[in-house]
Hints:
The complex is a heterodimer of chains A (245) and B (394). Chain A has a single domain (48-73, 91-241), classed as P-loop containing nucleotide triphosphate hydrolases (Rossmann fold, 3-Layer(aba) Sandwich). Chain A is 31% helix and 26% strand. Chain A has eight helices and ten strands. Chain B is built from 13 helices and twelve strands. In chain B, a hairpin with a 2-residue loop joins strand 6 and strand 7 (177-185). The longest helix of chain B is centred in the last third of the chain and has 44 residues, at 254-297.
Amino acid sequence: xxxxxxxxxxxxxxxxxxxxxxxxxxxxxxxxxxxxxxxxxxxxxxxxxxxxxxxxxxxxxxxxxxxxxxxxxxxxxxxxxxxxxxxxxxxxxxxxxxxxxxxxxxxxxxxxxxxxxxxxxxxxxxxxxxxxxxxxxxxxxxxxxxxxxxxxxxxxxxxxxxxxxxxxxxxxxxxxxxxxxxxxxxxxxxxxxxxxxxxxxxxxxxxxxxxxxxxxxxxxxxxxxxxxxxxxxxxxxxxxxxxxx
Amino acid sequence: xxxxxxxxxxxxxxxxxxxxxxxxxxxxxxxxxxxxxxxxxxxxxxxxxxxxxxxxxxxxxxxxxxxxxxxxxxxxxxxxxxxxxxxxxxxxxxxxxxxxxxxxxxxxxxxxxxxxxxxxxxxxxxxxxxxxxxxxxxxxxxxxxxxxxxxxxxxxxxxxxxxxxxxxxxxxxxxxxxxxxxxxxxxxxxxxxxxxxxxxxxxxxxxxxxxxxxxxxxxxxxxxxxxxxxxxxxxxxxxxxxxxxxxxxxxxxxxxxxxxxxxxxxxxxxxxxxxxxxxxxxxxxxxxxxxxxxxxxxxxxxxxxxxxxxxxxxxxxxxxxxxxxxxxxxxxxxxxxxxxxxxxxxxxxxxxxxxxxxxxxxxxxxxxxxxxxxxxxxxxxxxxxxxxxxxxxx
Lengths: 245, 394
């Protein structure tokens, strides 16, 4: 394997490949006949147990990069690997399996299914692993317990506060025991106190479980809590601050 | 994703929008119900014709002019009593041959009047058509020979012309001619929509004079056994064709008649069911419409499911099952409604209705097919969504 640039060697010590490697990835959209170069030769490697904040002004390509790192999208050019496997060699179904196995998503707007109990929301990814109801329930209960919502199993999203809803979403991201949590402005829809709780929860999960956490944010205060910070400008990674040891 | 889980998700999605699901189902309910009802009516009509033809007796061959098929014009018979004799000689037993010339007339007794179907026949009718006489006796070969003005009343005119009295020995006037009643037929009911109890039998010779004709409308032959039907059919055809080379005649078995009538009713049933099927298509379009709305409303849900690992076929199956669950629910309700309507029609109207297993099975199958057909496009639309775009959908 070629030595990727900007590798920060906190993971991979056991020889396992990084969770995700983006090498010279470019993403070009065509909107109304106009080409938009959302990403232009970006290199980013997320090691096992990594902690990364992606910053940048709106329109800089943050969300596009997050979509690629989460396997929701494919690059126009460049190399994107999950667990050492190139996405160009993966079928749509295999990519769906990668999302299920490798990535846990946390969204700004929670993206919980309405009219659905917390325990069913948290267990949703397990549906696509073919697990039965009781098994899903058991694992989802564990995940909700880990985020401090053991007392809210049967509550629906409308019966929960914003902070609680985001914690259900984190439980859903956690339930598959992914290598990486990918959070897109996870505190963007929360008051500062709930936001603080969510950030503490992400930090705790990173420390206790060794799960890599990648967050997209425009808030320097949020970014400061992550070991590495990369900044996007016009589709290019303009800087990476050295991790604070 | 497990199938049972997919079914549960589909069902819950429908329950989440009860009114909308119910209204969408209504289109399918009405379509399926009308298919079941109209096919029941068609089947009921066919059953009635079958029992009507069978009630004429067994192993009967009919000689009639022209070509009995759907759409052919009726022809006037050139058969005469000499043909009846020829057929009787050819098959070796004149008692198994009956002839008829018929006309609708008004029969009068004093001031009482009744519209009757005057049947000028030979004396062999009771044997050939398995008819029995309730009172008195049928007229005899001698009565036919001597053109005697005697009559045998059907059960209906016997009741209406002679209420509370025994008609035997009394007179009845038909077309200005007095006939003496010698017998009353046993009641048999209705066949082909013809009230067979409204008949009035007179000797064929007397009827020919009454109507001013020398023909007979048709000849019927009762074969001794089912096995001899084909053999006698050939003999009779040859005799009639040799005697009347100028006109085409058909010698038909009861099965032949059932076949022709069955085809006509089959076409009729098909046309009715097709018209009902149009409303099923309209119902299907309603399903497609609501599924498109549902897919668009749940774009973010689709994006999320894909993000957490749903494959294209998982999403396809989820929405297809939702559409099929809609049409199956509508189909089952429609089948029950259709059966209920058919039972009511059969009971409270003169229209016959017979519920057939195949029409119910067909209606169920069609409602599944409608769900798949009209559900597949919205489901594909859902399945093909790009997760990253779907998640950002507002």
